[in-house]
Design goal:
- The structure is a single chain.
- Helices cover 30% and strands 28% of the residues.
- The strands form 2 sheets. Strands 7, 8, 9, 10, 11, 12, 13, 14 and 15 form a 9-stranded mixed sheet that branches.
- The chain is globular.
- The chain is α+β, with helices and mostly antiparallel strands and 298 residues long.
- A hairpin with a 2-residue loop joins strand 8 and strand 9.
Length: 298
Amino acid sequence: MQALPATLCHLDGDYLPLRDAKISVLDRGFIFGDGIYEVIPAYDGHLFCLDEHLARLERSLAEVRIANPHDREGWRALAQRLVDSAANEATVSVYIQVTRGVAPRDHAMVQGIAPTVFAMVNRLTLPNEAARTNGVKCVTADEFRWAKAHIKSTSLLGAVIARQIGVDAGATETVMFRDEWLSEAASSNVWVVKDGTVFGPPRDNLVLTGIRYGLLERLCAERGIPFVLRRIAREEVFAADELMISSATKEVLPVTLLDDQPIGNGRPGPIYQSLYAAYQEAKRHNAQAQQPPRGVSA
């Protein structure tokens, strides 16, 4: 058995070492995957896009009819305490999970039980320089997951299977198509660049709208890059000048090989370079807006 770390976690109001945290076997998150989650990055002690993550957390809870156990300030304090506990790590992520709670097994949504609230902090390993310089390889698959992708649910078996397709092929991600239209990757959003415009699938129930949706839209506006959301056919993806994936852990990453076919000229393109630079600038601005920086007394 792999040893569990002693890093700090939060479980139902208590802060304790992760390896000591325990939940009931009748927790509906364990039995049914009946819960939602968020992953919030933090750079040098500063939570990034926190309000956007908490807004999505609220939306997901409302969609599955779980009462939100905290207001935004409560979530902010919880997340920041975990980040502060990992002061020896420059880049971390806070994982938050809320399940419906503990009850005898019944598919129906049990009423009157307290949600289970769990959160932990993890080291966040960003893509290395080679991946950013050369781009990464991805493969494709038909979308076989459910039609409520907009809910950030803990029921992730479909995503696990999709991700393993890429792992088996030695690829960074698996790009999914639903009826020949671009959906998303196993755990990332996908962006097509053509003639200087960034295209992405529309915000609807068929895609988990990543926090980078709003962030990249804003960064494109700052850089004068057209940004369009619409249905994107499979052939458009392979004919792209550039292809990118984005997530909290990948930030924005160029895809230069898809199903062993080069995308564009097979190298990361100028739109990616511009957006990656803008992303790093957004992180610096975020840190400056949150005072005092790590290591400086208030």
